[in-house]
Write a structure and sequence with these properties.
The complex is a heterodimer of chains A (491) and B (213). Chain A is α+β, with helices and mostly antiparallel strands and 491 residues long. Chain A has eleven helices and 18 strands. In chain A, α6 runs antiparallel to α8 and α6 runs antiparallel to α11. In chain B, α1 runs parallel beside α6 and α3 runs parallel beside α4. The chains are: A alpha+beta (491), B alpha/beta (213).
Chain lengths: 491, 213
């Protein structure tokens, strides 16, 4: 058949969809892809016709497209409890299959990735990347240097990318689904904005359904999966992709986003005779975290910025994931823990005082030693922290910490900084409620859109007015129901 | 940190004998160009693949030494002369010996090289000498592609188990061959260590190409 021929496929619901045949169609491990003439949808078929014909595979994919689908509201046949708002949110973050192809053979239809996940003409001056998809490793490996600075983002947008990814993985895991092949190839990112999209959803592991025969991608396969790869698929000792193996791949990606290096690939030689076997051991049975606090055998000599340059909470999660959890899957932090700690770290981001700093932002770990870990520039001036506290139910006047933030000029605050029952997640309203302004030597918290904000002395702060942030003062973000108390600490 | 990244050495052995004159050799030149462009667009290939070209006619030579893709310069090639396939294999063996880094106790070695051989005729020199030389070095997959009516599958089978035949020597077929080489390199650079010692799974060859069992 000639490339460019327009063919027709019949969907499960009887409708037809047209796609353009190409001789060298993009081909992954399991499937190859054609596009509709308007390029809005990808039509994908299995490489191996036996997979396409397997009723167990078809059954699994039907549930993925239907009752497990977080990109369609419950009312429209998607996942239980899914509203149009959350469905819309996850449509931006998953490339989830939306229909089944019945003829000419079993296949799936997915939306194509949003335009911002393709490089534009100005993405690089030395490579022609126009139209290529933004696989994560363009940004985290040595290829990074070939990209225009405008493409590369900064530490803040990369942290945002990590938050978005942990949230999408959390959403899958919440439904009991495992991606099974999370990797630089299956997560596209746009560091300019911190957006990410998870693709290749059809090889998900679905509870109580026949498991997909996916191995994963080099560097992201969980050590126990790699170590038992040679065993028979049905051997009970063989480790197969599951939620816990995703929880290895997820922190590998997060670590790459934050540090531009792989957490397990260091100088250690595991087998000097054979490169393939060396890798098999180094990413599998004998894998060693390059920042293992006790075992330094795989530690590169030139590590400057480490997990200790992040928040304490993130440092602990990385140690759990890559030291205890590396060879004991039950120790690995959940996607929800990653999402929560990354969000906490987000509220401690501050801009670097050095305009030349490539990373632009860093997490302020120690207010008494405010130094950018990347360029070593010290922040000048005082550090103002806000501690948001929620009143314990039924115990008036008794508060516990909900979250903390380090302020900077123009910093936005949202509903989750105002109400104890709102969290920064897919359901939250993302309109700015208040913001910080440095004005005439004062640090102000300006009320943009909060009803009933109170000053430290209990007076109403109307919208458009501000509270000055003075050390050891406290005020209610709103006197209304579920309002948080904000304590100010200046150091 | 990049010191710890292993290289994937890729050798292309290209027949430039007289019978390749005209459209076929032009298609080969175009194929190399496209191959480089394609691989530069794939982040894993760009990071790991290093490319070398060995051409052969009445004799064989390394036209482009093993080079990272960003620095690779297309070789000047022309068609003429006989088919020194045995000589080409000897040159390949020497290049692998000299260029491919082996692991030591302190340095990560390269991946096993990936070799693509394309020829349109029968060897005119001593093939067995070349095969013997090649046996002395460690290679990963060698894929031999016989192009056109004069290529002999049985001869190629002596070199490797992976033999493809393409029926014609048209520009279209040649373009498909290079596209397939490109997807094979991309696939290898991704899945390279999945199972040590096992053959790399290459994508199915294009339509019109026959795998010789």
């Amino acid at each position: 058949m000639v490339s460019g021929t327009v063919l027709s496929a019949v969907l499960d619901n009887g409708n037809t969809i047209e796609y353009v045949f190409t001789a060298n169609a993009p081909r992954g491990g399991m499937k190859h892809t054609f596009f509709t003439p308007d390029k809005q949808y990808a039509v994908q078929f299995f490489n191996d016709p036996r997979n396409a014909a397997d009723p167990r595979i078809q059954d699994r994919i039907r549930t993925i497209v239907g009752i497990y689908n977080p990109t369609i509201s419950e009312a429209d046949g998607g996942a239980v409890g899914n509203t149009e708002k959350t469905a819309g949110y996850f449509r931006q973050r998953f490339c989830w299959p939306i229909a089944i192809v019945r003829q000419p053979q079993f296949g799936i239809v997915c939306p194509t990735y949003p335009q911002n996940f393709f490089f534009g003409a100005d993405a690089s001056t030395v490579l022609n990347l126009k139209g290529k998809d933004k696989k994560s490793n363009w940004f985290t490996g040595r290829n990074r240097k070939y990209l225009s600075p405008g493409e590369r983002g900064n530490f803040r947008t990369m942290l945002g990318t990590a938050i978005g990814l942990s949230r999408t993985v959390r959403r899958m895991h919440q439904a009991g689904l495992a991606h099974s092949d999370l990797s630089c190839n299956n997560v596209l990112i746009d560091p300019r904005t911190g957006a990410s999209v998870v693709i290749d959803i059809d090889s998900l592991v679905v509870p109580n359904k026949y498991a997909p025969e996916v191995v994963g991608t080099r560097g992201y396969i969980a050590p126990e999966v790699l170590a038992t790869l040679g065993m028979d698929f049905n051997d009970p000792r063989r480790a197969l992709p599951c939620v816990q193996t995703d929880l290895h791949a997820l922190p590998v990606l997060i670590y790459e986003y934050l540090f531009f290096r792989h957490p397990l690939i260091g100088p250690k030689i595991y087998d000097p005779r054979d490169a393939e076997h060396d890798d098999f051991l180094g990413l599998g049975e004998l894998a060693t975290f390059i920042e293992d606090p006790k075992d330094t055998s795989n530690r590169p000599p030139d590590l400057n910025v480490t997990i200790q340059s992040l928040s304490k909470g993130l440092e602990e999660l990385f140690v759990r994931a890559f030291v205890k959890g590396l060879h004991d899957p039950s120790e690995r932090p959940t996607a929800m823990e990653w999402e929560r700690e990354l969000l906490r770290a987000w509220d401690k981001l501050v801009p670097c005082a050095n305009p030349q700093c490539e990373k632009k932002w860093f997490i302020l770990r120690d207010p008494l030693n405010p130094v950018c870990p990347f360029c070593k520039t010290r922040m000048h001036g005082q550090i103002t922290q806000l501690i948001f506290k929620s009143e314990m139910r039924g115990r008036k006047g008794v508060y516990r910490d909900k979250s903390e933030a380090v302020v900077y000029d123009t910093m936005p605050l949202y509903d989750w900084h105002v109400f104890s029952n709102v969290h920064n997640d897919e359901k939250a309203n993302t309109d700015i409620s208040a913001y910080i302004a440095y004005y005439n030597g004062m640090r102000l918290l300006v009320n943009k859109n909060i009803d009933g904000m109170l000053s430290p002395s209990g007076r109403l702060v109307p919208k458009g007015s501000a509270v000055e942030l003075k050390n050891a003062t406290a005020f209610k973000m709103t006197g209304g129901e579920n309002g948080l108390l904000c304590e100010v600490v200046v150091s | 940190m990049s010191d710890y990244i292993r290289r994937l050495p890729v050798y292309l052995l290209l027949d430039c004998s007289g019978s390749m004159s005209g459209e076929p050799i032009e298609a080969v030149k175009q194929g190399i160009k496209t191959l480089i462009t394609e691989l530069k667009g794939d982040p894993q290939a760009l990071e790991t693949a290093f490319l070398s070209i060995i051409t052969f006619d009445s004799s064989a030579r390394q036209t482009s030494p093993l080079t990272e893709l960003m620095l690779f310069k297309e070789p000047q090639i022309q068609a003429g002369g006989a088919t020194a396939l045995g000589g080409a294999l000897k040159v390949l063996a020497d290049c692998i010996k000299n260029e491919v880094r082996t692991s030591t106790a302190t340095q990560k070695g390269d991946w096993k090289p990936l070799v693509f051989l394309m020829t349109d005729g029968a060897p005119t020199d001593n093939l067995d000498d070349g095969i013997d030389a090649l046996r002395q070095v460690s290679t990963g997959n060698i894929i031999a592609c016989g192009a056109g009516a004069n290529a002999n599958a049985n001869t190629l089978k002596k070199i490797t188990n992976n033999v493809l035949m393409m029926n014609n020597l048209t520009a279209g077929d040649m373009a498909q061959f290079f596209a397939w080489v490109s997807s094979s390199i991309k696939a290898s650079s991704k899945s390279i260590d999945a199972k040590p010692g096992e053959a790399i799974e290459l994508p199915p060859p294009p339509q019109g190409f026959v795998i010789v069992p």
